[in-house]
Amino acid sequence: MDDGNLKRKNFSCSSETCFPNWFQMRATVPFALSICFCLLSCLNKSERRFPVDLVLELRNAKSKISISKDLLPYHWKKNPGRQSGLPLSRKWENTQVTFNTDKKIFLNHSLDSLFFPPGQEYEFKIPPGQYEFSTLIGLLGGTEFQSQVSGIFKIYSGENLLREWNLAGSVKERWTAKKEILEIGEFGSLRLVWESQDSYLFVGEPLLYPKELISSFASSRKPKSVILIVIDSARKDFFGSYGYPYSVTPVMDQMAKESVFFENPFANGNWTKPSMMSFFHSEYSSNLGLGNSWFSTKPYQRKVYYGKKRDNLAKTFREAGYFSKTIMNNVFFLDYTTVGLDLGFHNSFQVGMDIVDTEVLTNHAIQFVNESKDKPYFLHFNLNTPHASYSPPPEDMAAVRSVVPTEVFYRYESPVQRYLGEMHYTDREIGRLVAALKKQGTYDETLIIVTGDHGELFSSHHDYSYHFIMQTRFGHGETHYDEEIAVPYFIKLPKSIQESLGSDLSKNAGSGGQIRIPGQSSLLSLAPTILGFLDLLPKESTYKGIDYSSCIRTTDVCPKESFIYTEGRMSESVRTENYKYIRRYPGFTTVRRTAAGEPHTMAEELYDLKKDPEEKNNLSPVPEGERLLQIARADFRRENFLRRNHLRILIPPCSEALCRDFLSLNVQGSIYDWEVSDSIQLSSGSAKTVSLQKESKATNATLGEEVILKTVNPELGAFFSFSRNGKTIPVRFGRYGLEFQRSITNLEDLIVSERQPEGFPSSALPWVYNDGAFSGTRESEVQREMGKEVKKILETWGYIHE
Q1: What does the alpha-carbon distance between residue 108 and residue 351 come to, in Å, rounded to a whole number?
Q2: Global confidence as pTM
Q3: Which residues form the Sulfatase N-terminal domain (predicted)?
Q4: Residue 773 burial (CB < 10 Å; 0-12/13-18/19+)?
Q5: How far apart are CA 513 and CA 515, in angstroms?
Q6: Mean pLDDT of 511-531
C-alpha cells in the first residue's frame, strides 16, 4: 500500500452486503414473506423496521391520556424519553425509567418504556400477521411508600382480547420478562390497556418480531450483530498489537490481527464524557451542546442537545432494527444522573461499584449474547478497568510478572505496575466474552470494535496538570499529551464482509487479513465507518467523521485526518503529523508544577512532534518556536472546530476631538475566544470578565467597530457597561436596540438577536447583542413579523430612539 492506498480487486455487491447485513435468508419462502412484510410496512407510511418498536411507533399511536408532566416526581431515576419524537404535550408517554435492582453494587437497570398511569390505553396500527411480542414490565406505586402494586394488563387486536396479565402481588421496582405470540387481525390494530386503581406500569423495550422473521433467522446464517468494546483509560502502547514487547493483552492482540487496524488513533476528548459523546455522535462534544468543563450537564445544555437533530450509534442501530443495549459502569449515558444523556438505548445495565464491576458486567454481557444470538443487536460493552484505582486481581498481577522481565517491571512506578495488571485483567474478561461468542458460533459474523475513551498520564516530565481529580499525575483529563489521548482502535469485520473485500491484500496487510490504516486518525471516524461497513449510514446524517469503509471497499486512497482536535477541561488541542498545539481558555491558564502548589501559568503549549515525539520541549514561549506557533494558531483559527455563540459589541465612531473608550463585560457563558482589531487593547481577568480599551480621534466614519466575543457555554446573560472619556453613556441591547441609561444585570432573552439588528453598524450609541447561533434561537416568519410590530410599538413608547 502506498500512502494509504488499499490494493484490492473491485468491490462487488453481494446479497450479503447489499441487503441489511443481518437480513440474510436461505429459505426462499421466509425471505419472500419478510419482503412482503416490508412492502406492507412501507405502504403503512410509518417507517416500519424489523422489529416493530412500539416506542418509536408512539408518535403515530393514539393514547387515551396525554402525559405532558412527571406523574411520579418521588421516583427521580427517570426522564421523559428523548428519542421517540413525541411532542411536548405527550413527552412522558415514553419514559426512560431506572430501577435500582441491587443496592450493594449500585446496579441500575434502565429501560426505554411505554408509561401507563392508571386507565391508560395505547392503540397502534400494525400490519396483520403473527408476531413474537417481547418486553420487560415493572411497576411503581402512586406514592413512594405504597406497599402494594397491582393491576391487569390487556392486549387487544381490535376488540379481540389476545392476552391478559394479572399483575396482582408484583414486587415494586423489579423488571419481569414477558414473551408471547400475538396474532394481529386483518384491521391491523394493536391496543394495550392498563386497568389499575393506584399503580403505574412501565412496559420496557416493547418489540414485535414478525414470526416469519424469527423463523428465517433460525434457518439462515446468523445476523451480523455489533459489539462496541470501550476500555476506560486504555493506553495503546501497552498492547502488543501497538508494539509492546510483552504479552499483556493476548486476546485483543489476536483480534487485532483479524481487523481493520488504525495505526495511530486518537480520542477527541481527554476524559470520558467528551470523548464518548464525540465518538457516539461523530461530532465534538461542545458542538453537541455538552461542553467539556465538568461532569454536570446543565439544563441549558440539555435544551441545546435535545433541541436539535442528533444521530448517534444507539439511535441509528435501533432505527435499523437492531436491539440496542449498553452494559457499563458509566453514568454519562443515563439522563436522570444530571451528568448524562439519553441516547436511545432500549436497555441500559449500569453498575456503579468500582473494582467488583468488571466481572459483573462481563457475566451480564455473556448472558445477553447467549440470549440474543438469533436476533441482530448492537451492544455497547464498557469496562471501567483499567481506570484508577488500579486494583487488579492477584492472579493478573502474577500473570504480568510472568511475562514482563523483572528489570523492566521494576522500572515502572507502582501505579503503572498495577495498571499493567488491570490491562491483563481487562483482556482476560474480554476473552471470556469472545469465548462465549465462539462457543455459540456467532463470533465469525459479529462485528467487534475495540477502543478506549482516552489514555492515561504517567510520565514524570508531564507533571504539571491541575490535579483536581486524582491529586496525582496518574490520571487523565488535565493534559493533551499523546499518552493521554492516544488509544487503541481496531474493527474485526464479519467474515462474510472480510471475504467480500477480495484476496488481493495490500503490502501493508498483515496475517489473518489485517487491513492497516496508516497515519493519524481519530475516533470521530468510528460511527460512520462501522455503519458504512454494514450499509446503515442514514441519508443526510449528522455524522461528521470519515467513513473509512468506503475507501477500503473501493481500494481508493483513504482520506487524511490532517487535523485531530481534542477537548479537555477548559482546554483543547490540535494535532497534526508535525506538531501538537495546546490552548487553554482565558481564565483557565494557571496549572501547577506539583500537587502541592507552585503556580505556573501556561496559556499555550507547542511541540514539534518530528523532533520531540515525547513532547518534552514546549516551544510556545521561546523564539525558536515563533514561526511554528504562528502556523499552529492560524491552522487552529482557520479550521474553526467548535461552533459558539457570539456576543457582538458595536463601538460607535468617535465624534469628539479624542475618544477614550472603556468597556467592561461580565459574560455568563464564560469566555472562549475573541476577535478584535489591533486598535483595541483587551484583557481578561477571569473566565467571565473582559475589559476593552480604545483610543481614537474624531472621524467622518459612519460605521462603528465590531468586537466579537465567543462564549464557552450557550448561556446568554451578560453584564455590560461602556464609558467614553470617563462618562457612562447609554447602551442599546438586543434585536430591538432597547436603550438603557445604565448597565443592567442578567440580560438573557433581551440581549438575543438571531441576525444583525437593523441599524446596528451605524448606531451612534454602543450596541450589544448575542447572536445565539449555537443555542438555537431561530425565529419563525410569524415571530419576525411580530418583531417588526413590537419595534414600532416600542418606538412610540419612547424605548427606542432612532
Answers
A1: 6
A2: 0.89
A3: 226-535
A4: middle
A5: 6
A6: 92
